[in-house]
Every structure is written in C-alpha cells, then in structure tokens.
Amino acid sequence: MVAILSVSKVKLKHPPLTIHRMGDKVLRQPAKRVSQVNDEIRQLARDMLQTMYSYDGIGLAAPQVGIHKRIIVVDPHPDKADVPPLVLINPEIREYVGETVAGQEGCLSIPGVFCEVMRPEGIVVSFKDETGRPRTIQADDLLARVIQHEIDHLNGVLFVDHVENELVLDQELRKHGFQMQDVQRRAKVGLR
Ligand code: NI
Q1: From ligand 1's centre to the CA of 81, what distance in Å?
Q2: Residues 96-141: pLDDT tens digits?
Q3: How far apart are CA 129 and CA 131, in angstroms?
Q4: Of the residues 150, 164, 166, 172, which is catalytic?
Q5: How far does residue 135's CA lie from ligand 1's centre (Å)?
Q6: Distance between CA 25 and CA 123 in Å, rounded?
Q7: Active-site residue 121, yes or no?
Q8: How far apart (Å, rounded) are the C-alpha atoms in residues 44 and 41?
Q9: Which domains does the chain show, CATH number per domain?
C-alpha cells in the first residue's frame, strides 16, 4: 500500500503503459467509477506514474492508457524527488474558486501541441487516494489546472476542445501531425 509512493521519478526506456494519441477513439469514451481501491488499482496507479515520468508529464489519466477507470495521477513537481505525487480515484470537482485564467497546456496524447486554455484558477476536489481514504483538497494554480485537465480525460474531453483561438490551434495541430477534425468544440469550462 505504501509502495505506490516509492515510484521513483525517473525515465524508463520501456515505460509500462502505452499512451494513446488524439484521433484514437479510446480517448473519447467516458471512464467508469472505481468501486474498490485494491492492489490492482494501486498497480495501475504505479504504472501510470512511471509512464508519466518517462514521458516528462505532470499528469496522466487512465483513458490515455486505454483503461476506462476514473483514476488520474498528477505531479506538478516531477523534479522534486521528496514531493509525493497525487493519485485521485473517482475525483469530483465540488467547487470552482477564484477567477478564470489563461494558461498554457499540453498533453501526452497530443505531443508537441501547446495552447492557451481558460480555466478557473482554483478548485475544491473530492477523491479517494491510493489507500482508499476519502479526501477533499483545495488546489490552486498549476495543480488546479492539471487536475481539471486530467478529469476532462475521464469524460472523454481533451484540452484542445477548450482552445478558443481556432486559427492558432489549427496551425499547432498540423505542425505536429494532428487534425482539427479530431477536436470537439466545447462550451466554456466550468459551465457544463
Ligand atoms: Ni492530457
């Protein structure tokens, strides 16, 4: 149970999981709630963390590795060995806090593409941690942004769906081998 926190923040030559890319339908399917936090879930979280660190990510959601369970891992400090990552199982945003602010986002499923996205700067989020303990935290700034981005993945939503500047988005996508037709336009974040 404690072992999950012992995942070292290193890049593996052969990460345990394969990340699906935009255009793959698997990313558009909503994930199911996790009924029990057991060793299988902990192993998945560990594999997700190892894969995330291997690709220089700061967040990863299970649907990105083709698993339709509501589990995300986040770590805004991959360079700090002593700061533990967060594992959020069945995360639910309870409240939005503060202003809606612009921030640059990228995604391991859309490598190379970075665009500005408007999101609330803070959230209150409830979830179960890797021990199965229910927790509620307030997250701000980068952590809040990463958690919102990853929870979107659980609902089949990608950050490019929120990008308001379509011209810039189209350019960015083409440059990195992705297509505008795989973007699903959304209403503003926080109003769904
Ligand atoms: Ni992503």
Answers
A1: 23
A2: 999 999 999 999 999 999 999 999 999 999 999 999 999 999 999 9
A3: 5
A4: 150
A5: 23
A6: 29
A7: no
A8: 5
A9: 25-191 (3.90.45.10)
